[in-house]
Structures are given as structure tokens and as C-alpha cells.
Amino acid sequence: MSAKGKKQAHKQAGQKPTSEKTEIIKSKIPVRFGLIVILIATLIAYSPVFKAGFTNWDDQGYVTENPVVQQLNAENFKLLLTEDFVANYHPLTMISLAVDYAIAGDSATWYHLINLILHLLNTFLVFYLVWMIFKKLELSYFSEMALVVAALFGLHTLHVESVAWIAERKDVLYTLFFLASLIAWMKYLNSGKWKFYTFALILFIFSCFSKGQAVSLAALLFAFDFLFKRKILSGKVMLEKIPFLALAVVFGIFALNAQQEGEAVAGFTQEHVSLFERLMFASYGYVMYHLKLILPINLSAIYPYPPKMDGSFPVVYYIFVIPALAIVASIFYFLKKDRIVAFTLLFFLINVALVLQIIPVGSAIMADRYVYIPSIGFFMLIAVLLSRFLKKRSSSFLVVNSAGAGILVVLAGMTYSRAQVWNNSMSLWNDVLSKHKTVQLAWNNRGNLKYDAGDLQGAMADYSETIKIQDRHPEAYMNRGTVKHDLNDFQGSLADYNKAIEIDPNHAKSYYGRGGTYLAMNQFKAAIQDYDKAIELDPNYAAAYSNRGNAKMNQKLLTEAMQDYNKAIELNPNFSDAYSNRGIAWVVSGNFDAAIKDYSMAIKLKPNDGLSLYLRGLAYISQGNRQMACFDFNTSAKLGFQGAAQKVMEYCQ
């Protein structure tokens, strides 16, 4: 009898055909209850994010200092669709942040809430996708194993960076569409209906519009073909992949161009890094991701590249090539011996391959956020092995279940603790520096925090440490130049700005900063030249227009100054200093009504602006409105603005 005839005979006898698996063992846990517990536990584990604020790491470029996001109109919506932001092309991510800003403004809690909601949705989708896969494969305890994968995904400490960092909205958003696309693909495979194929393709496009890393889905589809024994080289199977592959190439080019234009693609801080050395770093990251998924300790927002000593990197990094090759070799082994295990390993490798730093992106050798999706493959491997163990020793179910619950509780506690690190920028950078003393970004950004808090000496020390680590750091020189300016060390300030410009002649902010020092030194022509250069390099530099207006005012160029203030306000309608500066120009021209209007706008945007209150008081005095003037002088004096108290004594007794 043929194989087909035997199968039909089994069916006629009411028997299930024997497969290479065994019969499905039914779940012992109510699925809905288990899933609800997982989602609640995940919510609790990540609850510290509700007390967290924005960080000074990319959150400025995405939200807090991004006028395009802060003004959701037709013109800016077009920019969100077409422009790169923070060296990435991800229009859906930017639109989601713009919607958040329209709803909640600069309330960080809202952004964290949305990120966490997306993570919870992703946890549910992980469960559903894995449930569909395991059920189709007829795995033992398929529902329970899907819950295991969902629990590990939702609670794993390595995912805190993707969820707790507002700038990583792109990670949780692209994953949402990525998983939904795979679910639609599974439905297409199960039903053969083209509507599900269409859904999968559209959701894939949405995922790519959220983050470039989504292009890996196109290659992952071939792993699904392998898993379900489809004829990969058949015409139909190949043709159905062409749209996905074409889109992956297009979005891959978009992503690479955005990284290059944003100067994120580079050889980090080292020169002449060979291909083998890059493969060595890729091996290190590949192995470390596995180890940190097993034991998520010593996590850091930044893992720096090792320093090159005597022309070579530390030997330990070369050793990682061996276990990396062993893992890859095991994939080839399991391709023939065990396609399910091979699929889980391929799921991880395919999704992590593009971020293994073979093409160096940024200044970190690895990043926790890079394994947000790849980790699903690792967790599926754990579930598969666990299901096989329980199938052979079902009596151990209670013991395994109790041990697993204990592990998840510990994991949730670690995640809760790690989430607190992202509470604010200071806790974040202190954590990085406690583990890696050579991270320039951490020193520089912590210096920015100290500067904003008025700790000029502390900021100076951190900027100097940044330069000590790597003396070709234009931003650190620029920042230190700003501190020296504030300390009235104008010559030292100019020296640092000159060094920043020497390192990077296209660094607009350095020209802007040096222009400010020249302005303080009453060298107005030199200041205007620097502001001209800053605007040439960045035509949308609102602050440069405003300060150039100040320099022109001192040159008695009132009309040109007014044009610069108008341009600054056009570029950034929420720029309080530009309104205040234009108010001064109106006073000089004798238009006190216009001046008061601009001062009022500046005060509305910055209620504690003692200077604008003081200036508006002077404008009211010029109009003879002593009552309103005294209100402003008193308020300004309470805010500690020097000179306001004298005006109170003069006009308000």
C-alpha cells in the first residue's frame, strides 16, 4: 500500500496518522489565565518607568528638542515622512512620537506608558505566534511552551533598554508590526488565502517604516519554509518572496544612507580595523548575547569597543571566534538532524546578523536593544527542549513548573531593578561609568547634566575626562568651551572652540558657541561671521539666527537684526529667547506695544524668565503703565533677577 493509502486507512479507522513528532499532549494550564498573569507580571516588572523622565541620550533629537515633532501640521508631517532623524529613517516611529507630543507635550510618563503598552502587545503577539508555530508542529505542551516563550520575552531584563528608553520607541513599534506580519504569514501558510499574504506584506512595510532592522523578516520567511518542509526552490515559494526581498533591499538602502549621513556608520574610535577584527567583534557580540540571555548581569546602556594596545586588541576578544563558530556549526548540524532546533537557532541568527557590527554602527560593540526580536528564537529553543523533557518525564511537570516560576520571579525582580537605572540621565550615565570608565558619551552627557544643574566645575571635569579618553572629540571641546565662556575665561573658551572646529570644520554648534564668546568679547564682526557659518552648515539653526540678530543689534543694523529674529521664530515658534530679543529690537525702534507682546510670548513659553519680566516692566514704564511695570519688577525680583529689586525701589514704593 502506498504512503497515501496508509494515511487514508488511518483516517478511516479514526486514528491520527503517526508523524515524526508524537501525539499532542494537551496543556495543563488554562492558557488565558497564564497569559493574563504574564502580562500583569510584566507590567509590574516595568512599573518603575512611570517615574522616569526623558534622558539626554537621543531623546532630545526625537522629542524634547525636535520642533518638527512638537508641531504636528501638514508641512511637518511631510518632513516626518521624508526626512531622517537621529541618523535613522523611521517615519512611523516619528509620527507616533508627534502624536504623543500633541496629546501629552513634554510629559515623559505618557511616552513611557505607550512604550510599555507596545511591549505588552508584543508579549501577547509573541505568545500567539509561537502558539501557532508549536501547534502546527504538533509539539507536546504547545500552549504551555508558548506561555514560557511569552513570559521570558515579557520579563527578560535584556529588554529593559528597548522599553524604558523613549528614543527606542522604534524598537517596540517595529516589533509590533514584525510579529503581526509573521502571524499573517502563518495564516497564509495554513489557509493558502492571499488576503493573509497581503496583510503580511503590508504589515512588513509598516515594520520597515518603524525601524530599518525589520528587513530581516524577508530572510526569516525562508526559515519558515524550511521548518514546515516547503519546497524552497519551487517557483511559487520563490515568487511569493520577491516583494519582501525587494522591499528589504529598498529599506536597507534607506537605513544605510541615513546612518552614513548621520555619521553613525564608521570604524568607531579605531583606525584601520580589518575585516577579521570586525568579524571578531561580531563573534564576541553573538556569543555575549547568548550568555546575557542566560544570565542578564552587568548590563550597560553602552558596551564600548576595547582599546587597541600595541597595535592589537586584547586576546580574549579573538577567543570568542571559537564559540561563535561552534554555534554556527551546530546550526548546520541541526539542519539535517533536527529542523525545529535549527529553526530556533536560525531565527536568532537571521534577526541579529545585521547588528553584529560587521559594518560598525555607532561606538558600541553590542547593545541590549539589538536582541529584542532575536531573543524570541532563543526562548523558543528553551521551550522546545523543555517540552521534550516533559514529554519523556511528565511526572516532573510540577517540579519544572515550580522551578520555572521561581526563575521568572527572579527575572522580574532583575528587570524591576534594571528599569530604575533608566529613571533619569544621571542614574543612567552613573551606571554606565560604574562598569565602563572609557565611554566618552557617558562622560560627555553627564557633563551636560552637571552644566544644566549649574555645576560648572563638575561639568568641566567630565568634559576633560572625555577629551582625556579620546582627544578627537569635537563636542567635548565645544562643551568645555561653553563652560569656560560662562566662567569668563574667554581665551580658554576660544581655544576649545578652535580645537573643536579644527577636528570637525563642519560642526555648526562649535561655530555657534565661538560666536557667543566673540559676542561676549564685543567682537561683533567675528561673531557675525561665525553665526553665518553655523547657519550655512545648518540652515534651520534658529538659535544662530537669534544670536546673529543680537550681534547685528550691537552693530546698529536694526532691520537686519529684526529679520534674523523673525527667521528664528519662524523656524521655532516656541523659542522664547528669540521673542525676548525681538522685543528689545521693538523697544529700540520705539514700538512698545509690539515689544510687550513679544515679551509676553517669551514669558508664556518660559514663565520663570526673570529677564523677560524685567524687560517687559521697562516697556510698561516707557508707556507710563506703572502698575503693570511694578507687577513685572516684583515678579522678576522674586525670581532672583539682578536689577529688578532696584526698579522696585525706584518705581514701586
If you had to describe this structure to a student in words, what would you say it looks like?
The chain is mostly helical and 653 residues long. The chain folds into two domains: 27-421, no CATH class; 574-653, Tetratricopeptide repeat domain (Serine Threonine Protein Phosphatase 5, Tetratricopeptide repeat), CATH 1.25.40. The chain is built from 34 helices and two strands. The chain has helices at residues 3-12, 31-45, 59-64, 67-70, 74-82, 91-104, 108-136, 142-155, 160-164, 169-191, 194-210, 216-227, 235-239, 242-261, 275-294, 315-319, 321-337, 339-352, 375-392, 397-421, 425-435, 440-452, 456-469, 474-486, 490-503, 508-520, 524-537, 542-554, 558-571, 576-589, 592-605, 610-623, 626-638, 644-651; strands spanning 303-304, 364-366. The protein has a two-stranded antiparallel sheet with strand order 1-2. Helix 8 (142-155) runs antiparallel to helix 19, helix 12 (216-227) runs antiparallel to helix 18 and helix 29 packs antiparallel against helix 30.
